[in-house]
Amino acid sequence: MNAASLPNKLDELRELSSANKAHLIGISETWISSQFSDQELALTGMTLFRNDRKTGIGGGVAIYISSCLEVHQVHNLEFNNLEESIWCSVRLSSTSRCLVGVIYRKPTADTEYDSRMLEGLSRSIRLGFTHILILGDFNLPRVNFAEHTYTGGDNSIEARFYNLIDNLGLYENVRSATRWRNSQTPSRLDCVFTNEEFLVDNLSILAPLGKSDHAVIAFSFVIKTKLRYPNNNLRWNFKRLNVPALHDYLQQVVWDVHPQIDVDGHWDFLLHTLLCATDHSVPQTVPKSFKPPTVIKNRTLRLLSRKRHCWAEYKRTNNDGAYRQYKHIRNTCTKAIREDRLQYQTKLMDKFASNPRSLFRYAASLRQAKTGVSQLLGLNGPTNNDGDAANLLAAHYSQTFQPADINFIDDSFISNSTGLSEVDLSADLVFRKLQHLRLDTSPGPDMVHPAILREAASILATPLSVMFSHSLSRGKLPENWKLAHITPIFKGGRRNEPSSYRPVALLSLPSKLMESLICDGLNDYLLSLNFFSPQQHGFRKGYSCITNLLTAVDKWTSILDCKGKVDVIYLDFSKAFDKVNHLCLINKLKRLGIKPPLIDWLTSYLKNRHFKVRVNFTLSQAMECPSGVPQGSVLGPLLFLIYINDLPQQVTSDLLLFADDVKLWREIRNQDDTQALQDDLTRLQSWADDNGLTFNTSKCKVVHLRHVANYSYNLGNSSLVVSQVEKDLGVLVPHDLKSYANCDKNAFRANLALVTLKRIFGQFDGRTFHTIFNSFIRPHLEYGNIVLPPHSRRTRSLWSVSNGEPRNQFEDSNLSLTKNASVH
Known about the structure:
Blueprint: H1 10-20, E1 24-28, E2 46-51, E3 61-66, E4 70-74, E5 85-91, E6 97-104, H2 111-125, E7 131-137, E8 143-144, E9 149-150, H3 157-168, E10 171-172, E11 190-194, E12 200-206, E13 216-221, E14 235-236, H4 243-251, H5 263-281, E15 284-285, H6 298-317, H7 320-354, H8 356-367, E16 377-378, E17 381-382, H9 386-398, H10 427-435, H11 450-455, H12 457-474, E18 483-490, E19 501-506, H13 509-528, H14 545-561, E20 566-572, H15 582-591, H16 598-606, E21 609-615, E22 618-619, E23 623-625, H17 636-644, E24 654-658, E25 661-667, H18 671-690, E26 701-705, E27 714-715, E28 718-719, E29 721-722, E30 725-728, E31 731-734, H19 740-761, H20 766-782, H21 792-799, H22 807-812, H23 817-820
Parallel strand pairs: 6-7, 18-21, 26-29
Antiparallel strand pairs: 1-3, 2-3, 4-5, 5-6, 7-11, 8-9, 10-11, 12-13, 14-15, 16-17, 18-19, 20-25, 20-26, 21-22, 21-23, 24-25, 27-28, 30-31
Helix pairs in contact: 2-3, 4-5, 5-12, 6-7, 7-8, 10-12, 10-13, 15-16, 19-20, 19-21
């Protein structure tokens, strides 16, 4: 169907999809942009694939496909720069696949675009799919496949298009007009192509969506496949946890274990007990899939039914009276749907006024897209199923771990204290940790849920404390705790490239609980030694991105105010957390006075870790983690700070750290200063080599503050690029240290958030505006303003984000850009 603005017709589309139990919906002219998240456009039980127009307004295509089908997006055809098309592969069986494509050809398409479209169609046939279904609005009314005719010369697009379809052996299945506009003659613009003659059955022309002039084409696609229903698997419903039953079960457990049992056996006993307690106290239900809220009321549904009848009558009679009657009821339906949406938004506001927390959950659920993994392209070709995709991603992530063959001992700090061999793992501390567990935390690979641990904290504190003490005294971690389940999250780029997916690790919650206790004890010990470098602002209490930036900008401006010059070098480590050398880290811990059994436990914690990648309900093979600190862990950030702590001691220039983000600078008075800064870069490169880390030189930049330089800096064998504006911990820092770049970025992001929220909630009222503005808009407006205070002109640009909202609402929100920051 041609939607001519999908967002405006989404409520009607949801009703149409539900009424027809659709498995596949192809849409052209979606008119959506990156401002819309997939969740805003979601249909119940459907997976959305979309390709928005990159420049200008209008255009865009999308495919909704049932979640019961195994489907992946295909990117091969997009290599030909066929902008407004989208292609998906549906797995029918082990030997057959169906290619589904949607194409939009704009009426003003030039010869070059038409050639790319025709070549893309040709390539679709050569990809080896057993079934092909191509939908789209081609805007070629003078091609009549029913009568095997076309109007135009031999080199016209009509002739080329008709001959190509004929040569490819494709069948066009639409035999009647699909577009009606006022007094114009109805035309056939929308097509349904298949590679077999009888794949399409029961094709009918339904009433258009909203006020679109294109009809909806409905049909049955006759193929044989096996539907999958993953959501039918029973799962524990922890919202219905029976706390008394949980307590009764656990109180009957004999927690004593044999003194000779090993750590793995001890944990297996606890795990078995926890899972049995879960079975005993938590009911199993079929999880509900995301279901967009019901907006359209019953009276409007009856109007939509009348609209369909009037449309059928108009098609049957084709007279002006029937069209006027259809147009009247169509407009009435559009108005009724708009009123239903407004009433729904008003009810939302009433609900959120009394329960602001539900506002945050609802807004987050619609703004955050829950996208899966597309078909991936590996060395052996594209993946065909979830298992192949999981294994390909696991192999890709494992390439990050590159342990260097080093045996380095850090002599920069030698502890004169008695050292640290144990930490407090008492039941009282365990109980307090259990009480503060967040219930929205996902369980790890062992499936121990935070609700079980928190609700039974008073009973489980002692058994867990005994288990933790046993693990520490033996200097060994249970092997099950060393397994991580990785969920790939799309971060941008091409969906068929493994590098476009960020790994997010899930670890055992009891393991993270013990890590937290170890981390507290180790951190207190290091603080007593005054160990941490004052240049490190990451993962430390009382330090933040803002303290890092304020410290740097204060020193820079002090030099510049005295007519000095400053060169700032931004350094970027490549996957630093994943490349931490275990042997080097253990040696550094030993030099700090960490002794057995704690050092043995930390060694066991780092060694022999594995991970599996999960795609939908399929896990990859286990892959080893020979280097790095565990992602998603509690102890990992502290261990990384220990690893990198001696880096500032390598240089004579000023340096600041935020975890692995490094900026190095020096006042430039003469050539000796540039050479000193270059020598510092050389020493940092040497330190990185000794510690098994590497710099990503393509992301390492130089900023010459308020001066132009005719010299360059080198890092290793690479010359560093000079940048005019650099993003420093989320704040845009230009070479002149003015606030224009950061203000424009803040205004853009705040306006984007405001437009999204207005689209979700409609017009704000005074009751909820303060909550919405202060929670979702104001953080964007104010970030970094204390570092680079906005000028008065830029302050006005930030205030302009109101975007038509009443001025007094923004005044009442106490936006303090001019009160809390200097205005120049």
